[in-house]
Amino acid sequence: MPFKHYNDSSGADKLPLSLIANGRRRTHHTQWSIVFLRVFSTLVLCSIALTLSIFLPTPWSTLRSNSFSSKVSFQKANDPASDWRDDIWPLRPQTPWDISTDFPYPRVLEYDVSEGTWLRLDVHPKSGDIVFDMVGDLYCLPAADVAKGSVTRARPILLGIPFDTDPHFSPDGDRLVFRSDAELGVENIWVMPWKGCGAMDVRSLEDRSGDVFLEEALKSKKFEERLLIEGVKETDQRRYNRLIREGRHEAQRVTNETYRWVSDARFHPSGSKVIATKWYTSSRSLGAGEGWEYPVPSLEDLGERRTQVNAGEGNRVLGRTLPPGWSVEEYGDQQIGPEQFIWNGPDSIIFSKNVRDANAFEYSKDVHSGIYSIFHRNLTTNSTKPLVGAFPGGASRPELSRDGRTLAFVRRVRDKEALVLKDLQTGSLHHIWHGLTYDLSTVSAPMGTYPSYAFTPSDDAVIIWAAGQIYSVPLSTNKYGERVASSTPPSPIRFIAHIEQRIAETLRGGVDVLKLETQDTQRVRALKEMRVDNHGERVVFQAAGVSYLQKIGEKVASKVPVLHERAPYYSPSFVHGADNLVIHARWSDINFSSFEISNLQSGISHEIVGTPLGRYFSPILCECDGPGRQIAFVKSGGDHMTGDVIATAGVGLYIGDINLPENDAKVSTQIKIRNLRFVPSDIDSDDRVNMRFLEKNKKLLVQQSSRAFVIDFGAGPNELGEYQHLTLASGRMSSEMVASPLSGNVKAENVAFVDFFHVYFAPGAHLKEGETVWSRPGNATRSLARLSLDGGHDVTFSRDGKKLFWFLGPFLHSLEVSRLHHCASTIVGDPLTFGISCVKSLVQYQEVVIEHSTDIARLKRDAAAASHEHKEWLHAQASDVVVIYNATLLTMATGDPARDLIPGGMLVVRGGVIDSIGTLDNTILSTGVTAINAHRGYVIPGFIDVHAHWEGFAGRYPAKSWEMETFLAYGVTTLHNPSADNVDGFVERSRVESGQLIGPRIFTVGDIIYGAGAAGIHQDIVDQAEAYSALVRIKAEGGPASISYKNYNIPSRASRQRLLIAAQNLTMLCVPEGGMNYDWDLTYIIDGMTTVEHALPVPILYEDVLTLYALSGTGSTPTHIVNYGGAFGEQLVWATQDLPNDPKLRRFTRHDILQGLTESSARPANSYALFNTSTSVAKMVEMGLLAHIGAHGEPPLGLNYHAEMTFTQQGGLSNYEVLRAATSSAAKTLGMFPSLGSLSRGKLADFLVYPPDVDLLHDSITTTRDLRLVARGGRIWDASTMEEVWPVKGNKQIVPPINPD
C-alpha cells in the first residue's frame, strides 16, 4: 500500500493499520510485561530511588512517570573520566591539509530554495535576527524584513567548502559561535564577531557599500577559484580574498580537535566560555557525547587575533558514566553519553541523554515509550536531577527561555511530534504545537535529535524549524505566569535562499566485466595459508581452494598433487625431513575434512584415514627422523556455512601417529592414523592457527593472531592432563603473530606481526617479559621495524628463522632478517614509520601467477559435451547457443519503458553473451540450438544487489555456499559487498568464478577503511602515502575486481579527501557508510563520493538537499531494510510474512535463522520512517538521481532483496523505475553498464524469466520474487530448485548439512 509523508506541519495522516516488528534482535515489551514492570518499578523505586544514579540503566526505566523528575543523584567524587586517558587514538598525527585548497572542486551548483532540511537556528538576543544553517552554509533573516510579512531574502553570511553548522549567539549578541570543519576537516567550534545580517552578507554590497575588500574579493572570485581547480598553490593574498568571500576572515578557533569532534556550542551567561558536546568513538564508530567547556575570545581579542588554541585543549564538565561492574580501563568503550548542553545560570547546565541504552547504542528502539530524558546538573555540588523523563515519547533538544523560567523540548506524541514547555517554577507541562517533524532520538544523532531553536528576545514566541520551514510559534502567559500556546496559530517565516555549492567531480570507475568473464582464464590474486620450508627456498599456500607450491625465484607455481581434482584443498604444510612431501586438507560437503600427503616429485597422493567425521585444519607432522611421525591438527566446531548440526563436539588440538608413505611409491595408498587423542590447550580454534613442532616432537609452537606460545609436551602433563604453555610473544592489537624461537630455549629470537595491515619486525632480545608488541608511535616496541610498504598478511618465518615472508595479493615478499642492520639508524630515528624508507629497499618480491578457467569457458565446454552426447548431428558452432523465445522482453536498455518493452520477443545467447534481441520474425536461428519457451512471461536483466552483506567469506573451510545459492535463486546475479575482508572476500569471489560453488559474481570493498578505534581495521589516513597504501591493499588482492572502497565514519574530511584523490588514480569507487551523521553525509555528496550507503538519517528531505543530492551525481543506496530514523524495514517483513514456513526459503536457508524470525511485537506504521525515506528517494529519482537496491544481507537472504524493492516503490516510483534501480542504474553507478544491467547485444547474459501470469509492470511489485528461471553469464537454473537447466541439465550442487530437519 502507498504511504504518505508522516509528521509534516499539518499533522500526520491517520494510518489504517498496525504493523508488526520482530523481536528477535531488538526486544520490545509485550503488554503483559509492561503491566508487570509498572508494578515492579513502583516497589523498587520506593526503596532505592534515592541511591541510584539516573545514569545507571534500570529495567523499569521505560515506564517512569513524572515523579521521575523529583529524584536527585550525585556524581561520585572519583569520576571515572578523570582517571581515564584518551591516549590511543589516533595512532599518528595528521599532516598539514586544507580541505578548501588541497582538493579540487571544479563544479558549481547554484539554485534557489524556499524550504530547507534540518535547519539549526538561533535568534539574536536583541535584534531578533534569525541565523540558521543550510547544507553547510550559514544564512541570516533580518528581523526587520521578517516583520514585513513577505518572503524574506536569506542573507548568506558564511559560505565556502567548509561545512558550517550550529550557529549560536553570545548573550549580548556581539559574537557568533558555530561548528566548522574548516582547514583540517575535523569539526571544531569557531567564533566570529556579529555585525548584523546586512553587514555580514558576503554576496551583496547593498548594506556594505564602501567595503572595497569584499568588492575586490568578489571580482576575483572566478579567476581565483579556477586557479585552485588547476592546482595552483594559493598565495596569501588569494587566501585572504577567499576568506573575505566566505565570510570567515575574522573567524577564530575556539577548539582544536584533530580526531574527536565537537558540536553545538552554547555561550555561558558571562560570554567568556562555551559548553559543547565532544564526541568520542570507541571500537564502534557511533559517538558518545561529553560536555566540554572552552574559553571564547572576547570581541577585543577577536579584533587583535590574540588567541592561540593548542590541540585537545578544553575542560571536561560532564563525562560518561559506567554501567555496574565496569572499570576505568573500560571507560573508552562506553558508547552512551550526555549531549545537547545548555547553560542554566552561571554554575548549572541542562542536557539530554539516551537513557534506554546502558552502554551500547541499539537500533530500532521504541520512540513512543521514549529514549531521551533531560537532566539538570549543578556544577558546584555535582548533583544531577532529572527534569523530564523519557516516558512517554522521550524528551530531547532542551532550550531555555531568555528569563530562564521555561524549558522547551520536543517529544513524540502518538503520531505527532510536539513542542512542549515546562515551567521550571511550577513544574507544569504544556504541549504548545504538534506540527513538528519527527525527532531523531531513534538514531545516533551528532547533528542533534532535533534542530536547535530559540525563544524570541521577549520570550513571546519560539522560532523553530519544522517540515521544511522556519516557524514562529506564538506564546502567551496563563494566570499562573506559565507560558502556554497563544490563540494565534504558528506561522511559517517564508524565505528564499540562493545556494551556491562548489562540488567535486563524482568519483567514477568500474571494470570491464565482459572482458574479464569472456576470456579463457581469470587470475587468483588473493592467496593465503602460506607455509615456508627449512631455508626459505619454497612456499606452499592456498589459492582459492587449491594448494600450490612456489619455488622462490621461479616464475611458475605448481599445483600440489591431489587425489580428487575437483575437490577443494586448504591448510598445506611442508613435511620436515621429507622435502618432496606436503600435507594438506581436503574438504567434502558430505564427509567434511580429510588429510592427504602428496609427493611433489612423483605426483602421487596418499590419504590419511581413521579420523572421525569432523572439521579439521592446520595439519602438521613432527620434525622427527624416519618414517614414524606424529601428526597434529586442530578441530573446530560448527560454523555458519557448514552448519551446527553434524560433528560439532571435541573442539581443540589433536595428536596422532602415522607412518610416512614410501618415497618411491608408484600408487596411492591409505595411511592409517593411530593413537589419536585430544590434547587440552589454549588454542583458539576460531582464530588463525600456524603450528610447528620443535625439538622433534617435544614442543609445539602455536602462532595465532595476538599470541605465539609453546606447548611443552616433553615436560609431561600435570595431574589434570594439561601441558605447560609458555608465551614467546603477544600483541596488543595485532591480527597476526609469528615467532622464530631460539634453538633449545623457549624464547623468541625474533618476532614478526601484522598491526593495522602492516608487517612489523621486533628483535626478541629487546622484548621484556610480559611485554605486548605494538606499533603505535610513542608507545611502540623498542627497535621495531616496519617491513611492508603498503601492507601484508600471512607473515611466516622460514624454519631456520633467517627469512621472513608475507603476501600482498599475488606478490610474495621476503626479507633476509640479517640485512635489517643496514637500516638500523633509520629505524631508530623514525618514530612514526619505523624505518620503512630504508627497509623497503631490502625487501624482495615476486609475482605469483595462478589462473583458473572462467565460467563462460567452462560453459562452452559443457555445452559442447552435452551436444555431442545427445545431438551428435548438431553443428559445433551452435552448441553454446540458447534461445529464449515467446518472451515479453523488458530490456532496461534505454530508461524508457515504451522502448524497452518487446512483446513476443526473442533473446539469443551465444557463449554466455547476448547475441541478439528482437522478435521471432526478424531472427534467424542456426539448426539445433537449445530453445526455451518463455510462454510470454517477462524476461529482464539479472538483479544487482549494491549493498549486500553475508558471512560465508569468513568461513575457514572451502564449502559450497548456501548463501550464494540463495542470492542466485532470488534473481541476484551480481553482488557488491561494502564490508568484507581484503583477502577472504576475494578468495570467495575466485571460488565462485573457478566453479567450486555457484553464485552471483562478487565485488567487494574488502576491509572497510575505519575511523573508529577497532584494532585490526582502524586507519588514520594522515597523509597521501597512507591513503594510497590503504587502497593498494584492496586493489592488490582483487586486481580488476577491486572496484571500490568504503570510507566508514572517518572523522577527518582531510583523510576522506586524500582517499578520493588516491581512488581517482586507481580507478576505484567510494561507497561510504552513511552512519547516521547527516552533516558528514552531505560532505560525502559535495566531495564527490560515488554513493551514500544507507539513507540520510533525516528521512524527509527538502529542496536544499533534494537538489544537491539529485544533481551531484552521487548515487543513493537507501537500504530501507535497515533504515535510519525509525524501525527497520526488516521487522515489517518478519512480522507480515510466514518466513519460517516459506517452502523456498526452507529449501535454501538455514532453518534456525528462519525460526529466529518467528515472533514479533506490534509497531504502528508511523514508527517506520522508511516510507518517508522512500518518498524522498522517489523525488530525487525524478530529478535524475541514480537509486539502487541494496538489502544489506538481512535475513532472510534473497527474499529481503525483493522486500527492499517493495519499500523503494512505496515512495511513488513506478514498477519500471524500481526495476531500473535494481538493474541498469546499479550497473551505471558501479561502472559496469557496458557489460551488464540491460538486455543488450554484446552484454553478459544475466537474465531472469518469469511465469506468464506475472505482470512485472502492472502487478504488485512483490511479484518480482516469483521467478521461473535465473541465468548468470548464460548458465541457466530453475529458480525454485537451483537445478541447472542449461547447459548441464539436471546438475545440482550439494551443500553441507546445515539443517537437522
Automatic annotation (TrEMBL):
Regions that span the bilayer: 35-56
Question: What's the name of the protein?
Answer: Amidohydrolase-related domain-containing protein
Keyword entries, A-Z:
Membrane, Transmembrane, Transmembrane helix
| Domain of life, per lineage | Eukaryota
User: Which organism is this protein's natural source?
Assistant: Collybia nuda
The Amidohydrolase-related domain extends over 1208-1250
Concerning Pfam families, the annotation shows: Amidohydro_1 (PF01979), PD40 (PF07676)
In the record, which residues are listed under signal peptide? none
MF terms (GO), sorted A to Z: hydrolase activity, acting on carbon-nitrogen (but not peptide) bonds
